[in-house]
Amino acid sequence: MPTVTFLGHAGVSVHARAFHLLADPWLAPTGAFIGAWHQYPRNDHLDTDRLLAADWVAVSHEHLDHFDPWVIDRLPQRTRILIPRYPGPAFRERMAEAAGSRQVIEIEPWEKFPLDNRGSWITVIPELSPMCHDAAFLVVADGRGVLHCNDARLTAAQARRAKHLAGGRLDLMALQTSGASWHPICYEYPAEEMAKVSMDKRVSKLRAAQRLVRQTQPELAVPFAGPPCFLDGEVDHLNWVLGQRDGAFCDPEVSTEWLREHLPGQRWDYFKPGDSVDLDTGEVVRDPVSAEFSFADDERPAYLKQYAEDRKELIEGVLAEYPVPGPDLFDRFVAHFEHLGTLSDYFLRQIAMLVRFEITGPNGGVWDVDFSPDGLAVGEASPDVRPHYRITTAGRWLDSVLTGRMAWEDLLISFRLSLYRDPDVYNDYLVGLLKHANAPALNAVEAYETGRDESERITVEWSGGCYDIPRYCPHAGEDLSVGAVIRDGQVHCLAHNFAFDLATGACVNARAANLTSRRVS
């Protein structure tokens, strides 16, 4: 009886004997992230009235392609909303505002929350590091186990624990294979370097999925959760990332082909909006409208052209809601960052760099924020000072961040900006400070990173030598015994693509603690 219907992107509908649950439904006809992202393929043919008549709606995190206020606003008052309990209040507060009088329930990690009186339940599995407020859902419906990974990069140990909790069997495991982030596509890379970085990230994402599924062995593994497409004129040039052969993001068809080749003993399938699978019988029913859609490169231009035309007025309506900022923009920018500078000395020490903001349009300017262990300073940019990071965006997008209408991470994910860094090293703490912007969440990261037990170690081999390294990645705790590859003298953690030099332990592509590796023979 339990049936899973795919809604597009990361959205699923679970129909059981006694309840109907939605997880991460993204259905808004205005897309997400200032109208920049749109569902690909489109899912606006689905019967939303029937879908939204749900008993439960589970939302994994606050990214707007998962947390859709358009959906929340149209739910019946009786629908109860389930969210993970994270260290900071931001997601809870945003959801409470969108939910109105509807009940919002926070679930503790690994807590079995009952969905009916017949033994069905749901739990949340957050990423190990509180730097990332992402979580998977484990749903047991009428005795069938569904691991809905969302954007969460679970460790192998977490996925195996989920399988154990579900009774030793996962009937369906859906996991993201398209990491649609602002790196590298919003960075100012030469064409050759952009192609190389894009392909490296694409393959790394697929390898991570392969390893996690190999460790978990679900009955059916499903690549899902992206990518989106881009319909507005400011961002539609980014649709090159959808290329099946060399795009930065893998569509579910390409992901499934790659994973079938590299893990042939596993059953794989992908689903389009409206497709469903019966977890008792394994029967798949394909949606007749979605069946007409093809991910093929030669069919994409015409498809996106029509899609953009259909949504043109809706996108224009979204953009009209973001007016030109007033002359006090710089003063509010200063106040905003001075406040951020008071939240965590630990983060200031880890950032330790100068970030330049080039704000275009009326009342914009070029402004520097110096994140120093001694404190934070904001001022007009000096031509004599070289920044480590440069962020360029329009004043009206910045204004919405300063007013609290939009989070920094929403702006980053909108791709309505460009970035440059020199040296080309990712600083997770800068992004962490901007996206969390509250002391409890930042304190949780500090406690996690400074309180880890690093005594458990493993031995790896490279080029005839043996190296002693910690079992768990110093960035976010991935189990390197199953979640890493060794190549070119480096340990590549597959969870977040951080790379560490075996000889020195230094992270070569991001700001992270030393691996403390040492050669033993």
User: What is the typical, i.e. mean, pLDDT?
Assistant: 95
Main sheet record: 8 strands, mixed
- Beta content comes to 15-25%
Radius of gyration, in angstroms, nearest whole number: 23 Å
By DSSP, the count of extended strands is 27
Oligomer: single chain
Stretches where pLDDT is under 50 for at least 5 consecutive residues are none
Number of helices: 13
What is the structural class?
alpha+beta
**Strand neighbour order, sheet with most strands:** 7-6-5-3-2-1-15-16
User: What is the 3D form?
Assistant: globular
Straight-line N-to-C gap: 57 Å
Share in helix: 25-40%
Organism: Actinomadura violacea
InterPro entries: RibonucZ/Hydroxyglut_hydro, Rieske_2Fe-2S, Rieske_2Fe-2S_sf, UPF0173_UPF0282_UlaG_hydrolase
Domain Rieske: 472-521
Pfam family, one: Rieske
Could you characterize the architecture of this molecule?
The mean pLDDT is 95. The protein has 521 residues and is an alpha+beta fold. The radius of gyration is 23 Å and the shape is globular. The strands form six sheets. Strands 7-6-5-3-2-1-15-16 form an eight-stranded mixed beta sheet, covered by helices on one side. Strands 8-9-10-11-12-13 form a six-stranded mixed beta sheet. The protein has a five-stranded mixed beta sheet with strand order 19-18-17-20-21. It is 27% helix and 24% strand.
List the SSEs and their pairings.
Layout: E1 3-8, E2 11-15, E3 20-23, E4 37-38, H1 48-51, E5 56-58, H2 69-73, E6 80-84, H3 90-99, E7 104-107, E8 113-114, E9 121-126, E10 135-141, E11 144-148, H4 156-165, E12 172-176, H5 191-216, E13 221-224, E14 229-230, H6 252-262, E15 276-278, E16 284-285, H7 300-319, H8 329-340, H9 345-351, E17 353-360, E18 365-372, E19 375-380, E20 389-394, H10 395-402, H11 408-414, E21 417-421, H12 428-436, H13 439-450, E22 457-462, E23 465-470, E24 484-487, E25 490-493, E26 499-501, E27 518-519
Parallel strand pairs: 3-5, 5-6, 6-7, 11-12, 12-13, 17-20
Antiparallel strand pairs: 1-2, 1-15, 2-3, 4-14, 8-9, 9-10, 10-11, 15-16, 17-18, 18-19, 20-21, 22-23, 23-27, 24-25, 25-26
Helix pairs in contact: 4-5, 5-6, 9-12
